[in-house]
Amino acid sequence: MPPIFLSKPQQFDELVLQKYEDFVFDLDGVIWTGPGGNTLTPHVKETLEYLRSIGKRLAFVTNNATRSRKQYLEKFHSLGLTHVVLDEIFTCGSASASHLREVILPEIEKEGGPTGIYLIGQASMEEELREEGLAWRGGTDPEDDVLLPPQDFSSIMPDPEIGVVLFTFQMRINYKQLAKAFNYLNFNPDCRLVLTNDDFSMSIPGGGSIPGEGAIASVLLNARKNLQPLIVGKPHQPLLDVVHRALKFDPTKTIFVGDRLETDVLFGKRGGLDTLLVWTGNSKPHDLVGLGDHEEPTFIADSVGELLKGVPKEKAAPRVKVPGEVREEVRQARGEVEVRA
Question: What residues sit in the active site (predicted)?
Answer without folding.
Answer: 26, 28
